[in-house]
Amino acid sequence: MTRGMISAAQPEAAEAGADVLRAGGNVVDAGIAAALVQTVVDPQMCGIAGMGSMQILLPGVHTTLDFHGRSPAAVRPEMWENRIIRESDDGWGFILEGRVNEFGYQAITTPRTLAAFDEALRRFGTRSLADLLPVAIDYARQGCLVRPHVAEWWNKPAAAGRPANIDCVAGLAGARRIYVKPDGALLGVGDTLRNPDMARTLERIAAKGAADFYTGEIAGEILADMAANGGLIGAADLASCGPEENAPLWGTYRGYRIATNHPPGGGIMLLEMLAILENFDLAGMGHNSPDYIRVVSEAMKIATADKDAQVGDPRFVDVPVDRLISKAYGAAQAARIRAGEKAHVPRFNSGGAESKHTTHVCVMDAAGGAFTMTHTLGQPSGVVTEGLGFMYNGAMSVFDPRPGRAGSLAPGKARFSALSPTVVFQGDAPFLVLGSPGATYITMGNLQVMLNVMEFGMSAESAVNAARFAAVSDTIELSNRILRSAERDLVAQGYPVRRHPQSYIFAWVHAIRRIGTRLDGGADPATGGLVIEV
């Protein structure tokens, strides 16, 4: 009998979660087990000192836990105003002089991932952190193989205005001791990555609980390191690191009911784009036809411009959620597209695309339970406290250093994040659970997989594998499997177009679909992910 299914971006993580399902754990247990392994085997994509968002569906429970990194209390709105070089073309942060917002101790926001994992298990799971940590501890101590996706990210060339990613794993002494061989070479594909310091840290957490990380002995080591190196994180910042619970943000699309996350997460963009696209016969246009790409790209551009101007942390910004996701607003924007208008996405002195530092796990079970979580470092800070082994997030990088804007710096503020773990319902039954890493491309990848299933009837695997495109600026970006004939048509219509050499790009979506009692799943091929049915 099928107990359920898991889809994750790393084979080791998927197997850990599947083993928990097989042993009788629920979807939360399986999802957190997988995520703990992810923090060890993919340590620049995520970590216990990271951030994220999860959605949980169980009998009698449907909720989201948001654990976006918040800026430390020491932050001031104007502190980096005079350091701006430019904004990235895809909207993923600002390039500042000295890279203070993305690399090193001042780049770190509140590390909330471990607190969120712990609360999810205590409230909704049947296992504890201590129960689930041994597999992750074993991978940290005994080692795991460096996968091609991990090595590719480490060795990715510099984007315009940014250094190569290798700085995050070899730029500071604490990280070099983990990721660089004695001969000075970086670990390569097939090498074994061991992190005994992280194993010891996870053992301490298993023995004393997550509180040790935030208010106990581990917290003391973190704070001493921050104080010695000019970090902004203080004791009050660590002590405030619990997740925030919200009811899902709801929308509809052609009879489907869609549950996603609230701002500062990216669910608002998904629902806005769907409200626009519901006014078009997308299936009649044909999948990835020139007209389909044009219409969907315009919806992407409109939602991106609205996000940049109006969406931020609701504690600090009055976000017009109801208006942006309303059917009336969607119809008005659709009329602009139908009239041939080209939306404009403003960027400050832009140029160059950025890399992505995020991962995902989805779980569904035979009883209708669902778990979907995207978690991330935002940007690896490169900082590893001596003896602790884990890398801190560098999520200060996406705040707007210009005061007075939706994404501007402020003490205790969360940055906007496109993280958008989502569940699609047919009636009251979950039909599709999905989510994705991929920085500003997350919502664009999630949107296309949802449309592939809802409009074109694809399985989860086919929907994830289908060629994607994106428009997070005025340029329409194409993966290499989008037809050249479609590209020529778009150019003829006056669109700037950029073709990427990769076949799989623009987010790394993971999804599970339910048809009756049958489950099918997809794991994005770009990450070497895996779907397991148990």
Rounded to an integer in angstroms, the radius of gyration calculated over CA atoms is: 21 Å
What number is the mean pLDDT?
94
Number of domains: 2
The biggest beta sheet reads: 7 strands, antiparallel
Number of strands: 22
Distance between the termini: 8 Å
**How much of the polypeptide forms β-strand, as a percent range?**
15-25%
Summing up helix and strand content along with how strands pair, one would put the structural category as alpha+beta
Shape: globular
- The helical percent reads 25-40%
3D architecture notes:
This protein is α+β, with helices and mostly antiparallel strands and 534 residues long. It has two domains: 236 residues, no CATH class; 205 residues, Gamma-glutamyltranspeptidase, large (L) subunit, C-terminal domain (Serum Albumin, Chain A, Domain 1). The strands form six sheets. The chain has a seven-stranded antiparallel sheet, with helices on one face. The radius of gyration is 21 Å and the shape is globular. The termini are close together. About 1% of the residues have low confidence.
Short summary of the structure?
By secondary structure, this protein is of the alpha+beta class. The protein has two domains: 236 residues, no CATH class; 205 residues, Gamma-glutamyltranspeptidase, large (L) subunit, C-terminal domain (Serum Albumin, Chain A, Domain 1), CATH 1.10.246.
Reconstruct the topology from this structure.
Layout: E1 4-8, H1 11-22, H2 27-41, E2 51-58, E3 61-67, E4 84-87, E5 94-96, H3 113-124, H4 129-142, E6 144-145, H5 148-154, H6 166-170, H7 173-179, E7 192-193, H8 196-208, H9 211-214, H10 217-228, H11 235-239, E8 244-246, E9 249-253, E10 256-260, H12 267-277, H13 282-285, H14 290-310, H15 321-324, H16 327-338, E11 358-365, E12 370-376, E13 380-384, E14 391-393, E15 422-426, E16 429-435, H17 442-454, H18 460-465, E17 469-470, E18 476-478, H19 484-492, E19 497-499, E20 510-515, E21 518-523, E22 530-533
Helix pairs in contact: 1-2, 2-4, 4-8, 12-14, 12-16, 12-17, 14-16, 14-19
